[in-house]
Amino acid sequence: MECSNAMASLDETDYETKLWPPLENAVNMLLTQQPGVYLKISYEEMYRYVYTSVCHQHSARIYEDLVNLLSENLSNFSQKLENLHGVTLLDQFHSGLKRYTQAIGCIVPIFAYLNRTYIMMQMKSDLKKELTALLNKTVIDHHVLRVLDELSAAQSKPFGCSPAVAADLVRNLNDFRPDFARIYPHLFAKYIPNILPPARADELPLYIEETHRMQQELVTSDDFRRCDQSKKRALDDTPVVPR
C-alpha cells in the first residue's frame, strides 16, 4: 500500500486535531496497561492514522510527537523511582520495565509504516531500537546501578526479594544492557547461563567454601530460625506411636 497523490491535502491543523489525538490516546493507554493485560485497541484504525500522516508529509512531526510522549512518560517514571528504596524500588522498577517493554511490542506495529518509510529509510535506524535507546537513556542509565545494588543486598537476605521478580529483572536488564553482567557477574550468573567462565579444578575449594558460607548464613538468619522453630514445635506436638 503506497500513498496516493489523489488524496485530499491535510495540513498541520488537520494533523493536530484529527490524526494525532487518537494516536496519542492509544499510546497513553498502552503505556499505562498492566503487564499481561492487553487493551482492546483497533490496530487497523491506528495504523490508518499513521499511514495518512505519513502520506501527507507529517512523518517528522509524528515521530517527534511519539518520542516526546514516551519521553515524558519515562521521565515521570524515573522521577518516581528516585524516592524509592529496597524491595519497593525493585518491584516498581521491574513492573515499569515490563510495562514499557509490553508497550513497545504494541506501539511498533501501529507505527510500522512510519518505521518503514521514514525511520529506516531516512534516519537509517529502527523504531524498536530508538524506543529501547530512549528507555536506556531516560530510566535504566539513571537507576540500574542502584537497582543492582539493592538486588545484590536482597539476595543476601532470605526472602528479601521474590525469586521470580529477581530472575525476570536480571533477564530483562541483560536484554537491554548486557554490559552490566560484567559489573555484577555473580548476580547475573544466578539466572543466566554462561555468564561466568568455566570453573577450573583449582577453584573448586573456593566454590565449596562459598557454598558452606551461604548455608551457614541461611541457618543463622532470623527468618530461617523462626521457620525452623515452628516446624520443630509441630514435630514435638506429634504423638509418638509405641512400637
UniProtKB/TrEMBL annotation:
<dbReference type="InterPro" id="IPR042652">
    <property type="entry name" value="CACUL1"/>
</dbReference>
<dbReference type="GO" id="GO:0006511">
    <property type="term" value="P:ubiquitin-dependent protein catabolic process"/>
</dbReference>
<dbReference type="InterPro" id="IPR016159">
    <property type="entry name" value="Cullin_repeat-like_dom_sf"/>
</dbReference>
<comment type="similarity">
    <text>Belongs to the cullin family.</text>
</comment>
<dbReference type="InterPro" id="IPR001373">
    <property type="entry name" value="Cullin_N"/>
</dbReference>
<dbReference type="Pfam" id="PF00888">
    <property type="entry name" value="Cullin"/>
</dbReference>
<dbReference type="GO" id="GO:0019901">
    <property type="term" value="F:protein kinase binding"/>
</dbReference>
<dbReference type="GO" id="GO:0031625">
    <property type="term" value="F:ubiquitin protein ligase binding"/>
</dbReference>
<protein>
    <submittedName>
        <fullName>CDK2-associated and cullin domain-containing protein 1</fullName>
    </submittedName>
</protein>
<feature type="domain" description="Cullin N-terminal">
    <location>
        <begin position="20"/>
        <end position="142"/>
    </location>
</feature>
<dbReference type="GO" id="GO:0000082">
    <property type="term" value="P:G1/S transition of mitotic cell cycle"/>
</dbReference>
